[in-house]
Design goal:
single chain; 85 residues; mainly alpha
């Protein structure tokens, strides 16, 4: 009875090129997702900016003016009509 048991490893075909691409693509995708999650959890402070850079950015914001809608000259008043039932 012990002679009937076969403990040799099963024959597994070698992965094809597309299977390798899929495996490594999923692997790198998982690493990319972990990096993105860590970037959200651990934000990097931007202390390397100088004060003059932040001053220039603020002054450019002040110079911007809100856009004013141009008056429409061809707008005609609408006539009100009552529907007959």
């Amino acid at each position: 009875m012990a002679a009937e048991l076969d403990f040799s490893p099963p024959e597994v075909p070698e992965p094809t090129f597309l299977e390798n691409v899929l495996r490594y693509g999923l692997f790198f995708g998982a690493i990319f997702q972990l990096i993105c999650v860590l970037a959200i959890i651990l934000p990097i402070s931007k202390s390397h900016k100088t004060d003059s850079d932040s001053f220039e950015f603020k002054s450019s914001e002040v110079v911007k003016k809100p856009k004013v809608a141009a008056p429409q000259l061809s707008k005609k008043p609408k006539k009100e009509t009552k529907k007959k039932r």
